[in-house]
Design brief:
Order of helices and strands: HHHHEEEHEHE
Strand order of the largest sheet: 1-2-3
Number of strands: 5
Number of domains: 2
Distance between the termini: 32 Å
Strand content: 5-15%
Largest sheet: 3 strands, antiparallel
């Protein structure tokens, strides 16, 4: 579990509607979970550890690490805003008590959670998180040559980026009557001339 944050608590509060009265520890735990669970699955353990080391040492701002800074500031931080918010929702809006889940109202007051409203809020944030996760994933696929750590994991406890489960590329076929049917059905088709897209 990392103790180095790639976004700050204040950064998260600035770009979301998380109230300033929310407990700092809840926010920090959500950031940690979004990094360790969500981000690490996207970029892999070695690249994740490299970024944490650069941020921890302050070397992320050195000119030779410009590619890592671009990855962090232009792609990862956008993802982490909504991933952290998503991971924080249970702790912010729900509390476990002897009488079940309750919604804190300040002080000693609380009331039952309206599940439908909670689910709507959670889905809205998850949609944004998924958008930025896919954007980050596409950048990593296109620019993987800049980040040698991506494919260097050789231990069971190190995660490799896995883009085949959630973020699938479209099919690649020669143009034929069959591809016209697929296009009409809304299935993305890539031209086989574009070799940079990895096959599934």
């Amino acid at each position: 579990m990392t103790k180095t944050f790639l976004i700050s608590e204040q950064f998260l509060r600035t770009y979301t509607d998380i109230n300033n009265n929310i407990d700092t520890e809840l926010i920090k735990n959500a950031i940690r979970e979004s990094q360790d669970i969500g981000l690490q699955a996207i970029v892999g353990t070695l690249l994740y550890q490299k970024l944490v080391t650069l941020v921890d040492s302050g070397d992320i701002n050195n000119e030779e690490n410009a590619n890592y800074k671009t990855l962090l500031t232009d792609y990862i931080q956008d993802y982490l805003i909504y991933a952290s918010y998503w991971y924080s929702l249970d702790a912010i809006y729900l509390r476990s008590r002897n009488n079940g889940l309750i919604k804190p109202m300040g002080g000693e007051n609380s009331e039952g959670v309206e599940r439908e409203l909670y689910n709507l809020k959670r889905q809205s944030i998850e949609n944004k998180m998924s958008y930025y996760a896919e954007r980050l994933t596409k950048y990593i696929i296109e620019e993987q040559g800049l980040y040698p750590e991506i494919n260097n994991s050789n231990k069971l406890y190190e995660q490799n980026p896995n883009y085949n489960n959630k973020y699938k590329n479209g099919f690649v076929f020669r143009k034929s009557p069959f591809t016209s049917i697929m296009e009409r059905a809304g299935i993305p088709i890539y031209d086989a001339r574009y070799k940079q897209y990895p096959p599934n």
